Amino acid sequence: MRISNIGHAILHTPNKNLHLQNVLHVPSANKNLVSIHRLTSDNNTYVEFHPHHFFIKDRATKKTIHQGRCEGGLYPLRPQEVGAHHHKQACGVSRPSTWIWHSRLGHASFPVVERVIRNNLLPRSTSHHVESVCDSCQKAKSHRFPYSSSENKSCAPLDLIHSDVWGPAPISVGNYTYYVSFIDDYSRYMWIYLLKHKSEVFHVFKNFQSHVERKYTRKIIRMQTDWGGEYERLNSFFNQLGIAHRVSCPHTHQQNGRAERKHRHIVEVGLSLLAQASMPLKFWDQAFLTATYLINILPSRVLDNQTLVELLLKEKPHYNSLRVFGCACWPNLRPYNTKKLSFRSTRCVFLGYNSLHKGFKCLDPTTGRIYISRDVVFDEEVFPFASMHSNVGARLRNEISLLPVNIAPSCSGGVDCHVPFITNPAGSSDHIKTQENDEVQEVHEIPNEQATDPAGASDPVTNPRGDPPIPSAPVSEVVGASPGSPRGGTGSPSSSSSATPRLSSSTGSSVAASGSSTSELSAAASDEAEPEQPATRPHT
Questions:
Q1: Which of 91, 325, 515, 525 has the CB geometry, 3.0–4.6 Å to 430, for a possible disulfide?
Q2: What is the pLDDT of residue 66?
Q3: Which CATH number is 157-319's, of 3.40.50.300, 3.40.50.10490, 3.30.420.10, 3.10.300.10?
């Protein structure tokens, strides 16, 4: 039986009104039934039943409050007459409010409460409902509000610059852990600067400001950043220059969404480049710089399929010089050779583009040296790292030649500002002058930990006859021969896969680090090699 309402009723008697609490309204019931237990407990009375009548008496005074007759084996409860008129029975019904149903239904949302009441014809108070906030719901269900799209649009370059720091990441081959990005709101053009510490942001921004304001003959008007510690120091600097600084709320990176989305774009493109080339993740800095360069010259759907370079610089990008990142390449190294029989090139890995020179960056994975040259032959379907040991490059960052700190700007991202921290190691010719007589040296793959750093592998010892030793692993690199060796300079390499005018692999790491140390190592190597030379060596 369905209960439609719950209320209360009053039974009028000459001496005392009897209250009937929690009366259940059941439309399908044919009789009105009274619970004796509830009647006596609610009114502090008791009932006497006799064969033909009954009495309701007060428990305190023992006076009769109501009496009636037995009819058909039942005891009907009717209001007694007072004079010539009957008291009209007044019944009141209390209906639960929407708030009561909201609490009964476990603090469900009000649209759900309304649907439950409507679909199940539940009783509800018709009084005016005043909207208010449920404290319990706020304590238990507080959440962020949705973010609306920004309608603000910049009218000119440098009106608004978005900036954010990405990281930390595993230490890269260039010893970098972070990068800071600057995005022009008008053109979506971006620059990134590699960082070793977050504290470098202040110095990097001043370099960035000098570069863009001089190039575009405009001033930076506004900056949009988060309130990270690296930008707190910049805030006072912005105030001195009159640059408006807009800061996102704490733990609300969505308000700096343009910079966050650019981070995602750079990381996705950079990881795609590394994955295709099978390169270790320690090369993320080179991949991210190349990714930024490529993003700036690609059409953007947000800009009606215009390129970022085209919108900012008013010029068409050039795609003819693009090459596949991480592919095999052979730079022309003949200008750096001092011996006529030195190999003219060696197989390297393409690492991207350079802003200081109009050329390509080529990494020799056996020594960790980076060559910068415009005369490079590419094989864009071959990736040298794909056939190397999975741990190759673990210590390669220690072998890379870097520019001096005072002339090494670590900016990148633009068509004109990309990968400035690597220089041509051949520019230091001290070690070339100390090169020994031409002698074929073979570099073998070293298992386990030594295989992670081919440049750190020691030179195999040749036998007294001058024959190359039996390799313990497949030959991976051959160093060029120079005339005047104990074998007369006529030895042929056992593998022509790569060669370079450099010292043997045992001194490769020192060559990349310092020319002076190379000279000492070369001299030492020469002294050690003397006793093994045949006594009948011809004089030259």
A1: 515
A2: 83
A3: 3.30.420.10
